[in-house]
């Protein structure tokens, strides 16, 4: 098997709100869009994101009312402090302040309008 692209599919109440969040704060572009569906991409190694509106018929009937919960979209970056400053200035909801874990992980989290947690990480040597 050869994987050419990695994509995460998230079911949300308002796909447009999440779309706008990822466009405004994380440099994503819309690859495809239709009623209840948005596909987002970037020009680098970041995971592609598909946003599906809760209830959309493409989902199995037993999964249509579920929304993304209990997960985080994680980006490993450089210049973590500058990213936190930028996101704070842009008005993003910083839901976990910048901190450093004992194992060398520095991180902070923001949350989109649908409750999707985005965690930015930088590893300390």
Structure, described:
The protein is of the alpha/beta class and 125 residues long. The protein has a single domain (7-123), classed as Roll (2,3-Dihydroxybiphenyl 1,2-Dioxygenase, domain 1). Helices cover 18% and strands 40% of the residues. The protein is built from two helices and eight strands. It has helices at residues 15-26, 80-89, and strands spanning 7-12, 29-34, 37-41, 48-53, 72-76, 93-100, 105-111, 117-123. The strands form two sheets. The chain has a four-stranded mixed beta sheet, with helices on one face. A four-stranded mixed beta sheet has the order 5-8-7-6, with helices on one face. The mean pLDDT is 93. Pfam families: Glyoxalase. InterPro entries: Glyas_Bleomycin-R_OHBP_Dase (IPR029068), Glyas_Fos-R_dOase_dom (IPR004360), VOC_core (IPR037523). This is VOC domain-containing protein. Residues 4-123 form the VOC domain.
Question: What is the structure about, briefly put?
Answer:
The chain is an alpha/beta fold and 125 residues long.
Describe the structure using short key phrases.
125 residues; alpha/beta; 2,3-Dihydroxybiphenyl 1,2-Dioxygenase, domain 1; 4-stranded mixed sheet; globular; VOC_core; Glyas_Bleomycin-R_OHBP_Dase; VOC domain-containing protein; Glyas_Fos-R_dOase_dom
